[in-house]
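Subject: for your reference before the review

Hello V.,

The reviewers asked for a structural picture of the protein, and I figured it would be easier to keep everything in one thread rather than splitting it across files. Below is the amino acid sequence we used in the manuscript, unchanged from the supplementary table.
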Amino acid sequence: MNGNKDAIFKALGDSTRRLILDELSERNELTLYELTIRLITKYDLSITRQAIAKHLSVLEDAGLVTSKRKGKYRVLIFNNEPLKNLLKGWIE
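And here is what came back from the structure prediction:
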């Protein structure tokens, strides 16, 4: 579990990754293109889809983001279970 905790904290340690999670928690099941457009327009970020894909890889390694095929698109899904499990140990 410690390795997973480290991965979660690493993932949350970057402001862009936190914005990605904010967007996915607000509107789950976004494509990479939709997520990129939302980040650029809402937060005035200067970021490419390739850079977002790298951030998503870190979030996926931490278990915070998963993806699934929906038709011809791959949609991104926020998974808050790792955060709940992490906090459960400290709060309970």
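For the response letter, the relevant points are probably these. The beta strands are 30-31, 65-70, 73-78. The helical segments are 2-12, 15-26, 32-43, 49-61, 81-91.

Happy to draft the paragraph if you're swamped.

O.
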